[in-house]
Amino acid sequence: MPMTATARPAKSSPVLVVFGAVLLGLIIGMIAANVWPVLLLNLNTPVASVVEIAFLTAYIFWVSGGGPPHKWRAFRSECLRVRGLTGRDWLWGIIAAVSFAATVHASIVVLFRFIPYPAASFHRGYDFSFIPTPSLKWLACVISAISAGVCEETGFRGYMQRPIERRIRPGTAILVSSLFFTLIHLTKSWALLSMVPIVFGAGLLLGWMARASRSLVFCIVGHTVMDVGLFAYWWTQIAGVFPQKPIFETRVDSAFLLECTILLVCVSLTLISIRKLSRPLAPS
C-alpha cells in the first residue's frame, strides 16, 4: 500500500524494510545511471546528450509520481521528497550544496598531500579520447555529472533512504544509504582504500542534507557540482592536472596549511548550512 502524508505504514520486520529499500534504491538509481554510458559510447556526443536529457526529464517525471501505476503515485512522490521550497530553503540549500562539493574536493587535495596521487588509477576507465573536441569533452563531463547526480540521489537518498526513515529511524536510514553508496563506488578504479572515508563521508553529508531539507534538490545540485569537478579534473584532466607533491617530499609548506584551512572552512560551512535547513518534522 503506498505511503501517504496521513497514514502510518504498517509495521514489518526492520530487516525486511532495509532489504526492500536497498533493493528498490539500487534498481531505481543504478539502472537509470547506466543509460548515459551506453548512449555516450554508441552515439556522437551531442546526440547522446540530447537523448540523455530527454531520458532524465521523463525519469524525474516518473520517480516524482507522474505516470502509471497510479496507486503508487503517492509513494513515488514521498520517496523523491517532493515539496515546495521557500526562499530561505533555496539560500541555505545552495550554500550547503556548493560547500559540500568544495568539501569533497578539498578532502581529496589534502589526502593526496599525505600520500602520492595515484594518477593511473584515477584516469583508468575515463578515456574521452574518442570525443573529438575540448568543448564536446566538457559537454560529456557536465552531462555525466547531471546523470549521476539525478539518478544516484534518487536511488540512494530517495528510494533507499526515505522508506527506512519512515519505517525505522533517520540515523539508520542515513547510515544504510551511505554504506551502499560507498560499496557501489568501490567498483571504480579510483576507489582505493584511502578514498573510502571520503566517499562514505560524502554519503553521510548528502543523507543528512536530504533529511534536513526534506528535498532531493540540493543533494542533486551538490552531487552534480562535485561530479563536474571529478570528471573534468581528477578523472579526465580536461581542467588540468594535480601538481602537488606529498608533504613527506615537500615538508609542511604554506600551500598545505592553506589547503587544510580551506577544508576546515568548507566542512564548517556545509555543516552550518545543513543545520540551517533543518525544520521540526511531524512524526513519520
Considering the chains and any ligands shown, give keywords for the structure.
284 residues, mainly alpha, disordered N terminus
Task: Draw up the topology in text.
Layout: H1 14-33, H2 35-42, H3 45-63, H4 73-79, H5 87-114, H6 119-123, H7 134-167, H8 170-185, H9 196-213, H10 217-235, H11 247-250, H12 254-277
How would you describe this protein?
The protein is mainly alpha-helical and 284 residues long. The protein has one domain (14-277). The protein is 71% helix and 0% strand. The chain is built from 12 helices and no strands. The protein has helices at residues 14-33, 35-42, 45-63, 73-79, 87-114, 119-123, 134-167, 170-185, 196-213, 217-235, 247-250, 254-277. Helix 9 (196-213) packs parallel to helix 12. Residues 1-9 have low confidence and may be disordered.
Summarize the structure.
By secondary structure, the chain is mainly α. It has helices at 14-33, 35-42, 45-63, 73-79, 87-114, 119-123, 134-167, 170-185, 196-213, 217-235, 247-250, 254-277.
Beta-strand proportion: under 5%
Give the CA-based shape: globular
- What's the gyration radius in Å? 19 Å
> What is the helix content?
over 70%
- Determine the structural class based on helices, strands and strand pairing: mainly alpha
